[in-house]
Task: structure prediction
Amino acid sequence: MARTGLAALAVFVTWSILGFLLHGMILTSTYAATPQLWRPMAEYKMTLGTIVTIISAICFVIVYAQWITDKRLQTALLYGLVFGIGRGIAMGYGSYAAMPMPYMLALAWFLGAVVDGLAGGLVLGLIVRGDARPGKA
Result:
């Protein structure tokens, strides 16, 4: 259980840092050029965004720890890649299908989610090894 909790915390921190780099630095000019699509910063729901990231990290880790039996680094990276592709398609291209956003933003969201998945898989693979299902030490 301790490794699972540590992994969830580490994935949360990793995704938070990568999210800041992508959304807070790399894409700021794109967001500024499309203000009609976003809440003003004064109305941004920072707490909700943090809660979403925490819950996503916990779910990501629990699925791996509970249901993936082959806990090698390679498996964790593949799991992260598949997770990232699924999340990126939904977030990037799903949003692009429904919103008048620039294509490059959809692509950046997709690629960012793939990087998040791979980074999360790396962290997960380094921390959760062997029989580390929830409820086991």
Confidence is low (pLDDT under 50) at residues 132-137. DSSP finds five helices and no strands in the chain.
